[in-house]
Amino acid sequence: MPYTAAFTPETLTRADVDAARGPLVLEFGTHWCGWCQGAQPHVQAAFSQAGAEVPHVKVEDGPGRRLGRSFGIKLWPTLVFLKDGVEVARLVRPHQPREIAQTLRQIQPPA
Question: For residue range 67-92, what is the model confidence (pLDDT) as tens digits?
C-alpha cells in the first residue's frame, strides 16, 4: 500500500489537487508535531487494514503554506480524503485505525 512515511515540503498546488483523478489522501502536519507522530501507527495500520491502493501524500504544513490554507487546515494531523479532486471527508487528529480505514473505503474504487 502506498502509505507515505515522511512529511515533505509542499510540492502540490491546489490546482494539482483539484485536477487529480481517482482517490487521494492528503495528510497535513509536520515531522516534529507530537500529535502527528502519535497518529502515524494508526494511519499506517488503517492503510494496511483497508488494503488501500490510495495515494497518500504527507504535506508539511505551517504558516504561509498555501495548500494547507486552501483547505482551511487548523489542527495537525488532518487527513483530507479526495476523489477526483473533490473532498469527500476529513479526519482531524484521528486516533483509531478503524475510523481511518472506514473513511478510506469511501474513496477507494470498487474491487
Answer: 999 999 999 999 999 999 999 999 99
